[in-house]
Amino acid sequence: MRERAKDSTSQGQAPGDETLRSLIRMLSMNCSSSGAHQLSLERECSLESKDQLRKEKSKTYIAVPAEILGIILPLLLGVAFLVLAERKVMAFVQRRKGPDVVGSFGLLQPLADGFKLILKEPISPSSANFSLFRMAPVATFMLSLVARAVVPFDYGMVLSDSNIGLLYLFAISSLGVYGIITAGWSSN
Hints:
This protein is an all-alpha fold and 188 residues long. Helix content is 72%, strand content 0%. The protein has 7 helices and no strands. The longest helix has 59 residues, at 35-93. The relative contact order is 0.06. Keywords: Membrane, NAD, Transmembrane, Transmembrane helix. It is a multi-pass membrane protein. It comes from Crotalaria pallida (Smooth rattlebox). One of its GO terms (molecular function) is NADH dehydrogenase activity.
């Protein structure tokens, strides 16, 4: 045994390499000889992995939409109240009353504006391609939200932590123009 160790060290190999190789050979022969045992292990592993996969999928169905809503809803509410602030400042500059009818100090005005927008009658040109004309603003809105996937909102609070985040942001934000072009083209 010592001679083998001296031989392996003289060939540039560590003394434990030969033992490791023999152990690997024994394990591979053992696995190939007991096929039935190996199949039962594979079945058990596959059942365990299926259960784990189901649990992960159920977590994914809940966690991913919760993360998305956790980022999108504050973003949309922030934009709505920034619009309210802009309207208040514009009213002050023009020396008139701003939005103050809905709620105290007009704080519910963004909700009233959103409700009005939802209930508005859809108007489309008579010669327009209806499906393209309706999908163009949706595409522009969705692309603007998808672009926010790589923007970190807080430490560790980012939907997609990719290495090419800036390139992704530029690429997606440049696609938003196509919604406007599609709406104009479809209105013929």
